[in-house]
Every structure is written in structure tokens, then in C-alpha cells.
Amino acid sequence: MAQGFKPLKRNVPEISKKKKKSNTSSPKVGKRIAPKRHAALQEVAQKKRDTAQSTGRIEQEMAGRAAKGPLSIMRKVADQADKTAKPKP
After folding, report:
1. pTM for this structure?
2. Compositional bias of type Basic residues: which residue ranges (predicted)?
């Protein structure tokens, strides 16, 4: 027998390591945020909500003024606000 002779390997379909890991994956956990970072993110979200509310109020006020007066820029918004507003009984 010749030295260094190795029989040919059969092509056996092997499952890669990635596939093995994905089959046994752990349950997904939400994004973890450090405590100080979490507080900062809450502050940013609150500020964003406050800004959106104040901007909405300002736009509604300007739309109301446009419906009554010469502010022609906001007339379309005023017309939409009148349509969406509930009539007073």
C-alpha cells in the first residue's frame, strides 16, 4: 500500500454552524438600554410629544384666525379644521 493514501470522502450534506445555531435560538429579548440612557431617551420622547402638541395648537389657532380674518395662507387648513370639528349642539 502506498504511503499517504487516503480514501475519498463522500459528499455528505453537512449542516453549517449558523444553521445549527438558528435552530436552537433563544427567545428574542427587547432592546436593552442602560439605566442612564433610558432616562435620557424618555426625556427626548417627552420633549418631542410636547413640541408636537404645541405646534398643533399653534396651527389650529392660526387656522381659526385665518377663517375670521385676512390670513389667506392658512385658509385651506381652516377649512379642513372646520370640516373635522364637531358642530356644537
Report:
1. 0.40
2. 29-39
